[in-house]
Design a protein that fits this description.
Layout: E1 2-10, E2 20-26, E3 48-49, H1 52-62, E4 67-71, H2 81-89, E5 94-99, E6 112-116, H3 127-131, H4 134-139, E7 143-149, H5 154-161, E8 169-173, H6 178-195, E9 198-199, H7 203-208
Parallel strand pairs: 2-4, 4-5, 5-6, 6-7, 7-8, 8-9
Antiparallel strand pairs: 1-2, 1-3
């Protein structure tokens, strides 16, 4: 499969924010979010080709098997992704997959947690594709919806989020600097208080800024 990078850090977003984690960032994504901060993962021909056994050894070498985060790029568009999931579920106690949800969830497992991040209309022309399988995502009890909200998108985010189970919605402020994230978070905090939703941090931005490998 095509791999952009592997690294050891803290999970910066979603329900496990702050937990030590091993990351594998897969290469290739066609969603094309206008604010994407990992555009180096878009081209499926970039990155490096890694056989599954070698990738598993590489992940093992980074640290304890506690939390494995599979991100991208868009994991659902990476060949070999389902084989990686199957192998990881045999070895790791908790796996989180960051995905825009351009397809239905390909697998369920007690250790497998999906951080589904559907997009808003202002973000990409493909936004409807990321919402098309919402019932399938919400049918998996270990899936949360993490919606990235940029400036001016609060009303549209609220409209779409109200179609989902309230206790599984996370709003996350868009931004690649501590100042931008805080400014957006202050606005989203009021929305979350009013609607009963959670807010996801961007812990890695606060700690290290918009850098690779963190």
């Amino acid at each position: 499969m095509r791999v952009a990078e592997t690294f050891r850090s803290l999970q910066g977003e979603g329900p496990s924010a702050g937990a030590p984690a091993t990351f594998v960032r897969l290469q290739g994504c066609s969603v094309g979010c206008r604010w994407c901060d990992t555009r180096y993962t878009w081209d499926p021909g970039h990155g490096r080709d890694v056989p599954l056994p070698a990738l598993l050894d590489e992940l093992d070498s980074l640290g304890p098997r506690d939390l494995l985060v599979i991100t991208g790029g868009e994991p659902l568009q990476n060949r070999g992704f389902e084989e990686l999931l199957e192998a990881a579920c045999e070895a790791w106690p908790r796996i989180e997959v960051e995905t825009a949800g351009v397809g239905a969830p390909p697998a369920t497992h007690p250790c497998l947690h999906w951080n589904w991040s559907p997009k808003l209309p202002s973000v990409t022309p493909l936004w409807e594709e990321t919402w098309a399988h919402a019932p399938a995502w919400m049918a998996d009890p270990r899936t949360i919806a993490k919606i990235v909200v940029g400036e001016g998108d609060e009303a549209e985010a609220a409209r779409l989020a109200r179609t989902l189970p309230r206790d599984r919605v996370y709003l996350m402020p868009e931004g690649v600097t501590e100042e931008a994230v805080k400014r957006r978070a202050l606005t989203l905090a009021e929305v979350c208080k009013r609607e009963g939703w959670r807010m996801s941090p961007r812990l890695h931005i606060w700690l290290w800024g918009a850098r690779r490998g963190v």
